[in-house]
Batch of 3 targets.
Target 1
Amino acid sequence: MKRVLVRSVYDAFDYVMDHYYPAGLEEFAERKDTYAVISIQDTHTEGFGFRFTESTSCKGVLTLYFDDIDRPVEGAALFSEEQAGQILSFVREHSGAETLLIHCYGGESRSRAVGAFITRYLGGDESRYFEEGRPNMHVYETLEKVSDLSERD
């Protein structure tokens, strides 16, 4: 992957639609990169009402349901080690995509944590994610823990 993008659900939708073109008019697509999507959706609404799917440009989609919390809260779903493992596997399996698009509702906490960790995991500098916002540290630290465990196996 050449780049990691963190977006709100609205901006992620716009990014995906920038790849669309009418039949036979491929040159009209604003974007021509390939991408994979990590879609983080809320549990209390059972998602955002739509799902991303694979296409000519989209090489894979991982949809996860967990809420923007950092400790157990009744009625909400906390990010799990199993979900962290799914993210790490997805990133490895889709390394050929040019872009990794990560979104949650606002693009500020959950997706920022995943983006920061994956940027570091891929050998990049994650500092901008911490300078420009507040990643969900439970998500970040769970990814870090699962990554350390999987590298020992």
Note: The two ends are 24 Å apart (CA to CA).
Target 2
Amino acid sequence: MSAASETNVTLRVLIEGRVQGVGYRAWVVNAARKVSLFGWVRNLTDGSVEALVHGPFEAVEQFVADCQAGPYMAKVTAVIKESVDEKVPEGPFQQRPTADRQG
């Protein structure tokens, strides 16, 4: 196992495209829980989806790559990731209510 795979990272991920009304959030929750990542996902009022994800570097990077495809009905046009220093809730990855887009 490489040092990178043992290092935990936290990313804010913004997914744009046809990602609301297609089961995208539920898909994200399942994808994150499969690889034991922590965090949350929510719709934003501008039509995008935002996730905060925390876990081993390689698992987080694979999760972000998987977000490009998403569920069958989704049409992802962009996945934007940003490293953040934000506390992630403990416990299973969760779905949160819709929020306004920040900044």
Note: The chain has a mean pLDDT of 92.
Target 3
Amino acid sequence: MKLLFFDDFRLGVLKGNNVVDVTSVAEGIPHSTPQQMISGLIENFDDYRDKLEAAVAVSDGVPVSGVRLRPPLPHPSNIACMAVNYMEDGTRSEPAPINAFSKAPSAVITSGETMVLPDAPATIFEGEAEMALVIGKTATNVAAADAMDYIFGYMNFVDGSARGLHAAAAFHAMKSRDTFAPIGPYIVTKDEIADPQKLHVQLWNNGEIQQDFNTDDMAHNISRCVEYITAIHTLEPGDILATGTNHGGLNPFQDGEQIELEIEGLGRLSFNIRDDLKRTWKRETRHDRADQGFDDATPQVRGKYA
């Protein structure tokens, strides 16, 4: 099942190219916000699945192209992101030590919305294509062997980054900017994904493919990621755990560009970039720079902070 929010945060289920409004099915879930509704639905999904399927069966819905998509998880209590979690197509001789960071819930946007680049002295703005896990039940000190039982589903995730900030709180300033966590456009329940550890990941910038890799290149697999994070802090139903990226195809995000991320089975996430300062970079990926003998991202060419 593919769950989403649309228009004024109506709850929907995707049916082909249409969306069926199933808000009435979930109205009995105690909530005062859309996030509380979807979190409650996720936590009690076994009680609601048949009702949702019945509602979808008797309705054609409306074209999803004619509605306004909303983030399927509008304000999760936790967004945990794995750091340096890919073997980079064999260019790493061994996995980096397992590590992670948190991203602010206010960073969430979805398809049709805009990532806004801030007035900050970043050396470059990038977005990392990632598969995210959606947590299905309260998870504390989960063993790797049990980890998959705690996953509700999967979705596309982009980890926006303002690189090169040197303040004391640089990592938080780099990762937790408003609009720096595009997700969705919907949550795909785990029963629809045969093997989440073998999914094709592609990201396009203005129609040109930049990132192209597979989740089988993860250094620390999904179960280990869940084990690691939940040993540090509890994850709740409706929380997000992003599993990292292959850095080779990272490229500068610039004003006016359209970014599209499609992970096999998870649909396509499409959003825009706005930079009121109109800063520019060369169109180069990390792979391009490495081929030229550099080990950094392409430098800014024009604009403030160049």
Note: Residues 79-302 form a domain with the Fumarylacetoacetate hydrolase; domain 2 fold (CATH 3.90.850.10).
